[in-house]
Design brief:
heterodimer, A: alpha+beta, Butyryl-Coa Dehydrogenase, subunit A, domain 1, Butyryl-CoA Dehydrogenase, subunit A, domain 2, Butyryl-CoA Dehydrogenase, subunit A, domain 3, 4-stranded mixed β-sheet, 4-stranded antiparallel β-sheet, 10 strands, 52% helix, 14% strand, globular, B: alpha+beta, 11 helices
């Protein structure tokens, strides 16, 4: 497989680029934040995105999706990153869809996937319980047959989801890969308390408390006690798509900074003539080129279900998180005082880069995991 | 679809034939890993072959033009398509065949000759490069013209049917072993300094050419200073037009940069394997955790860089030529190579410090010292960043 986009992929990307810039630009995120919007994104725009094939990007055609795979999802995510578009793409169209495709029963798929792809149903994935991503640290208890009790952190779009996918410990010790089971949970069920958090990136995140929440065998996704197989796939999908989003964030912040370097004058000259700034910009250009390569390769590897895909996911998430951090930090610094103002947009990019990096493991987590997967 | 199928079938047939030919013609000695510098065949009038196998391997490959698989057949090249050349590289890698010939004629001068040379120059010089008969060296830098290469002062004065060259060059790689030199000389003395430079070729045996070796921090002397004292150069040895040599010089530099930038991606034992051997694991992780982090970050960047080399190649094939990529690859590749060497020294500890010991196979300290030149030669890292700022980022005044 070559590391270039096909004509179909290029068309899909160009359509996504136009749509995100027109219908979900940074100004929309600013307005959602200023209005303290109860949903956190525009449901109307999400419906239009669904018509563009975004909500069903990973959903096969047999379940009414467009089946454009991870490369397709990444192309959308990069444009979401460039425009800081607030959408439930990650929570519903990537995490939940991956969980259902990997572990869902035929009945679950038939009921849920077409509705998700149509933009009519939102799902959230509730697994993390530690402030730093620790995938198998699942302490949420499952008692009797069955009642769930525990607390889930950083549940993306948790407060507006129609259904939740919740991980629980059905056997083994906290931290063990074995003994985790995934359940579909109705957020309106007795014992579910959902608290929306106000986040630095103005995106949706919630804490979910579960107290003796009843579930049945029909709600299990994947194999009982073997939920980690699905969990791993869901996290890798989320990490790869977040890497693509981080690439978009880094590219846009970098381009805005270059424009500023060409326009802003101090000491009677454009500040872009200063070599100290030129060299930092040129180095950043190289780093972003590397991220482009690893993100595309990783998305291709996930689509092809290559055995080394997880290693590439670590590389992509670590590199994209780190480079987006540098790109947005440099963007604020090179914009100087105006970069520190809320009125100017560049700060939004730094905030999103930070939040997206933290989600499902940052550069430190994935550097460690890369080394472990490489045998050291 | 069927045209694609046909070309796939043709390519598979080419692969079978190539493998069969390599198996029949590549001597077993030439399928061993390269251990020292004598295993690299540079060719030339005074070529020293380490053994007969090396000589035979060069001869057989040169007969097919496979020392330069993609160069045109009419000048002795292989005339292969990009896809066929890739298949040849893959099959050579599969059989662990060594490159039959390494030379600056192949990696630097050849592409410039093919692009800017006249018919007579191409038919005179290219076949000798293909067969490894003439070893070339590069006359670019001068004591007073390093990063500011265009300020070079070595001059060529017009004497009717020939030039007379005076001046000196520095950092001439293997200047004492080369047969011919491709050389930048000043032929214009007014106006912009870039517009008075010409590109000439001449025989290193010409009267008035002398070389003096330069000993480096690594202990090796791969470079010379090269002196020209009234050297007669026939005018037919001018490549391209008079005073238009800078364009050729820059074109050639992109090839040199690709070569130097790619050095970091040569197959070597992964750093982490060396670290596991020397440091050991504790609970599945390298026992020294701070070093482990740096090794992992290096290996990730190295993999990201290798993928970027692949992507740039794929994009070039798809017709999306990305300008000034050679500067990016040169900058990042050489900085990575230095990181690898620094970490290799850390991982090998006191063993890596052994120096000048001809019994030591690894020569790690010399390798470490050698890498320091990577980000200087062929344009420093800082010059590459300047080029990116100017040509890619379009920053003002750069």
């Amino acid at each position: 497989m070559t590391l270039v986009l096909t004509d179909d992929q290029l068309m899909f990307r160009d359509a996504a680029k136009r749509f995100a810039a027109e219908r979900a630009p940074v100004s929309q995120l600013r307005k959602l934040r200023d209005d303290v919007d109860p949903v956190g994104f525009s449901r109307d725009v999400w419906k239009e995105m669904a018509e563009m094939g975004w909500a069903g990007v990973l959903v096969p055609e047999e379940f009414s999706g467009v089946g454009f795979g991870f490369v397709g999802a990444g192309l959308i995510a990069a444009e979401i990153g460039r425009n800081l578009s607030s959408t439930p793409l990650l929570s519903s169209a990537v995490l939940a869809v991956t969980a259902l495709l990997r572990g869902g029963t035929q009945a679950q798929k038939e009921t849920l996937l077409p509705a998700i792809a149509g933009g009519d149903l939102l799902l959230a994935f509730a697994s993390d319980e530690c402030v730093r991503h620790t995938p198998y640290h699942v302490a949420t208890r499952c008692t009797g047959k069955y009642k769930l009790s525990g607390r889930k952190l950083h549940v993306l779009d948790g407060h507006i989801a129609d259904r939740l996918i919740v991980s629980a410990r059905t056997s083994g010790d906290i931290g063990a890969r074995d003994g985790i089971t995934l359940f579909l949970v109705d957020p309106k069920a007795n014992g579910v308390t959902i608290t929306r958090s106000s986040m630095v990136d103005s995106r949706n995140s919630a804490t979910i408390d579960l107290r003796d929440v009843p579930v049945t065998d029909a709600d299990v996704i994947g194999t009982f006690d073997k939920g980690a197989i699905v969990l791993d796939a869901v996290f890798d999908a989320g990490r790869a798509v977040l890497s693509a989003e981080l690439l978009g964030v880094a590219e846009e912040a970098f381009e805005r900074t270059l424009t500023y370097l060409r326009e802003r004058e101090q000491f009677g000259v454009k500040i872009g003539t200063f070599q100290s700034l030129q060299h930092r910009a040129a180095h950043l250009f190289c780093e972003i080129e590397l991220v482009r390569s690893v993100v595309l390769r990783t998305l291709q590897a996930l689509d092809a279900q290559e055995p080394t895909a997880s290693s590439l996911v670590c590389l992509a998430k670590a590199k994209a998180s780190d480079v987006a951090r540098i790109a947005t930090n440099e963007a604020v610094q090179m914009h100087g005082g105006i970069g520190m103002t809320d009125e100017f947009d560049i700060g939004f990019f730094m905030k999103r880069a930070r939040a997206a990096a933290e989600t499902f493991g940052d550069q430190y987590y994935h550097t460690d995991r890369f080394a472990q997967l490489s045998g050291y | 679809m069927s045209a694609q199928l046909n070309s796939d079938q043709t390519l598979e047939a080419f692969r079978r034939d190539t493998r069969a030919w390599l198996e029949a013609n590549c001597p077993p000695e030439m399928r061993q890993p390269v251990v020292d510098e004598y295993d690299i065949c540079w060719g030339g009038r005074r070529a020293k072959f380490k053994n007969d196998a090396q000589r035979v391997w060069l001869q057989k490959m040169a007969e097919r033009g496979w020392t330069v698989p993609e160069w045109p057949k009419q000048y002795g090249g292989g005339g292969l398509s990009k896809d066929e050349a890739r298949v040849l590289r893959e099959e050579m890698a599969a059989l662990k065949c060594r490159p039959p010939l390494t030379s600056f004629g192949i990696s630097m001068l050849g592409p410039a000759l093919l692009k800017y040379g006249n018919e007579k120059q191409k038919s005179e010089h290219i076949p000798k490069i293909v067969r490894g008969e003439i070893r070339w060296c590069q006359g670019y830098s001068e004591p007073g013209a390093g990063s500011d290469l265009a300020s070079l002062k070595t001059r060529a004065d017009d004497h009717g049917d020939h030039f007379v060259v005076n001046g000196s060059k520095i950092w001439t790689s293997y200047g004492d072993k080369a047969d011919w030199i491709f050389c930048l000389v000043r032929t214009g003395f007014t106006g912009k300094k870039q517009e008075g430079i010409s590109f000439v070729l001449f025989d290193m045996e010409s009267p008035g050419v002398t070389t003096s070796p330069i000993r480096l921090i690594s202990g090796y002397s791969p470079f010379t200073q090269t002196f020209f004292d009234n050297v007669k150069v026939p005018k037919e040895n001018l490549l391209g037009e008079l005073n238009k040599g800078w364009t050729i010089a820059k074109y050639l530099l992109t090839h040199e940069r690709n070569m130097i930038g790619g050095m970091g991606t040569q197959r070597v034992t992964p750093l982490s394997q060396l670290a596991i051997k020397n440091i050991g694991l504790a609970a599945g992780r390298l026992a020294e955790t701070a070093l482990r982090t740096d090794i992992a970050r290096f290996e990730m960047d190295a993999l990201a860089f290798a993928l970027t080399m692949n992507r740039v190649t794929d994009e070039a094939k798809a017709g999306n030529e990305t300008g000034a990529m050679s500067s990016m690859l040169k900058y990042y590749g050489t900085e990575l190579n230095k990181r690898r060497a620094e970490l290799t020294m850390s991982v090998t500890g006191s063993e890596g410090l052994k120096f000048g010991d001809s019994h030591s196979e690894e020569q790690l300290a010399a390798m470490w010292l050698r890498t320091k030149a990577n980000s200087i030669e062929g344009g420093t890292s800082e010059i590459q960043l300047n080029i990116i700022a100017k040509n890619v980022l379009r920053l003002p005044g750069a």
